[in-house]
Amino acid sequence: MATQHSRTAARLMISPAVILLLLWMIVPLSMTLYFSFLRYNLLMPGMETWAGFDNYYYFLTDPAFFSALSNTIILVVGVLLITVIGGVALALLLDQPFWGQGVVRVLVIAPFFVMPTVSALVWKNMFMNPVNGMFAHIAKALGLQPFDFLSHAPLASIILIVAWQWLPFATLILLTALQSLDREQQEAAEMDGASVFARFIYLTVPHLTRAVTVVVLIQTIFLLGVFAEILVTTNGGPGTASTNITYLVYAQSLLNYDVGGGSAGGIVAVILANIVAIFLMRMIGKNLDA
Amino acid sequence: MTYRVRALLGACAVTALSTAAMAETITVATVNNGDMIRMQGLMPEFNAKYPDIQVEWVTLEENVLRQKVTTDIATKGGQFDVMTIGTYEAPIWGKQGWLVSLNDLPADYDVDDLLPAIRGGLTVDGELVAAPFYGESSMVMYRTDLMEKAGLTMPDAPTWTFIKEAAEKMTDKDAEVYGICLRGKAGWGENMAFLSAMANSYGAKWFDMDWKPQFDSPEWKATITDYLELMTNYGPPGASNNGFNENLALFQQGKCGMWIDATVAASFVTDPKNSTVADKVGFALAPDNGLGKRGNWLWAWNLAIPAGSQKVEAAKQFVAWATSKEYLETVAAKEGWANVPPGTRTSLYENPEYQKVPFAKMTLDSINAADPTKPTVDEVPYVGVQFVAIPEFQGIGTAVGQQFSAALAGTMSAEDALAAAQAYTEREMTRAGYPK
Amino acid sequence: MARKASTQRKVLVTAIAWTIAFLIFFPILWTILMSFKSEGDAIKAPFDMLMSPWSFESYAEVQTRSNYSRHFMNSVVISLGSTLLALVIAIPAAWAMAFVPGRRTKDILMWMLSTKMMPAVGVLIPMYLIFRDFGLLDTRTGLVVVLTLINLPIVVWMLYTYFKEIPGEILEAARMDGANLRSEIIYVLTPMAVPGIASTLLLNVILAWNEAFWTLQLTTSAAAPLTQFIASYSSPEGLFYAKLSAASTMAIAPILILGWFSQKQLVRGLTFGAVK
């Protein structure tokens, strides 16, 4: 196996990346940690005083905190469900032979390239607006009362927008995985009289598990930080109906200018993210390691 | 050092300064509102007069702008030479010493011409800390044709009772005409600007003299109850996401019977290019409840120079130009008097040309009807009509706005929203150490 | 018989696939269509909007109001710069992890990924202060550094999973032939790794192009990329659908076109070790 020499070389090669990320994590994070123990309002500089655990107390007892926590979970899980199930279905479909595969693939992948801000603005104004939006026009044409998505189903609307952006990503990975499925094995199973359903359950699903794991991991990392979509569409409301942890931290530090409280929120969010990371690591360890 | 040498050195320094002022680029942060965008289009006029000053514009949506300039000035980032700030920020920032005093603007700037109500809000300890670009109050804008159809006549100074009656009669949901459009989008500068002003006319207030929050008062209850009743029965769908812009679009498309909002909206709704109802709009003062206060606010967008700017002289020249009488004339010559930035100068309202503009008088009357130092019926410890000029207000106002927005969306009852607002405000005020 | 059935099936699949693709693409298509209408027409009912006359006025207005080419160039420099820098740092690291795995490799990898979960808003004020002190505010350099750090974990991971698929026997064979570490990397690994590197590059250019928090917070004008360009068209006073559509189209078109043309390369490496 690897020699001592190559081990040293490997360590040297890894170190720049590790050191940089360590700095990136430690420098702002330790400043944040320090701020989180101060009473620090951005509009009153020079008046910082030691606050002990006050900021943590206020952040954790904020009535918005628990709804933000559950909204974060609903948002992540909701988008994951839609993109994984939709992605598998779409990948199975696109794996069939049909005319214009290239064009269809180009169209399906497109939402992934759109900036989150732009897609949120487009969905909010051109589609979900209850007076001028496309959905309202369709409802009116059908003689129905236009549904006001962003006030009556704010979280679901945001899930829809975010899922639209991430569906192409899931589809692509799952499709690639599907295309590497052993055809001979498939055909052999077909010969043996296995039904379409049985083939799906016993051959395709196990084959896709790894791909699904990857999709879940990557998307979770990005979905925990969903922010622009909420800022643009609902500002976390009505009430706190669509506030997630990231948005709550934003509201604390940049709407309230309460840097201390925002920093405490940031630390709480980092701790929560690490819990998720450990959980994911377990999952990935089981599934991804050969 | 002899006197002569010193004088010589001084002269050199002056020359050095004036050469440094040559071909300077100043960075101006501003909101993407119509009047500011118009100003960007007038840069050739500015450069004709000041060929040495190049202006770099950073135009942003209001919330993004506010957050960026605040972060920058509070951390002394030094990214901007001129910032567009509101009447809320000006006194707070001025007190911190973050803004360059504008007391030494040239005589032809005519500081005394600025409207007293507006100027008062921008003066901190005798120093003018920001120059008003445009000022606004709020008023009722209504459709004269629909009012006539409803068989009613709008008085110049309506009451809330009349507004309710008119809203009911003007509403025709099948034709997509909604009797009244009001702000519902959460934010201290969005729904809370309207609601705080409305509450003033109901005799409600944010805090009593001991800085105790007052959302548990019957006056607030009456305000919110009436607001919800108006909006659920006669308002447009999706009102909890409607701010100024959304309502403007609705009114321009002829979907609102009445709209109570910023006076600057008048020039948009009467502009035939963008408004389908341009020739059918009437104006009235914001409603009252007979308690001596009307439900209108006072606001101005102002240009200020952050103390950290390296180009104070060039920035001052720009600010003086953009808020001068001359600028008003330049706009009038190019785009007509109706498009002049309103609400900052007495002379504008004395100009016979401007008096022909249909909403000129009502705008001035509305501005004069607001008094930031005595916003509501009772005495209060704070300054500001639709805001409370303390640093904590922005956060509290937005959180409270979220509650009322939820009440409007129907996900919360009025009582729960008020209780939540009270609890939140008490909590934050205790935390901030009030009463101070 | 069989052939006919399969043709029928193909027609059906084609119809379904095209319908779904159209629906998914529709919001983008609609935005593009709307950008060629006047403001007054843009808010009409869908059919009336389509039938209204075409116009370039929104593009003309966006063009006079903002310096598109500067925002565009900043986006290009920042997204490409940060991706290339991340690749330079990540390639050796990923190589080492893939071919000389230690006991800790997996932990290091997961730790790297977990740094991505740090909520950016929580560290904005510290970052702003650091940037101010280093004179990095509103500079491309500053943004390149931040985006490099943000995307580095993903880059390392993508490359790692890709390198891992390169069979070890080839390396052994090269070593037998007396290749040293350097020539092993240059002559044996690199050619095999190019598709993976290309796809990593593409994905990260896309992610960096669309990053909308740091790019907006840490720039004002000189280094402001397209994300800030968009921020001046969201919810202004008055009607804005057409102008917003035009600005949106201009902001997403470059990356959309790039994505479409390089789709094959992008997909090839976009497996994150999902395929064995």
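qc> The mean pLDDT of chain C is 85.
qc> done
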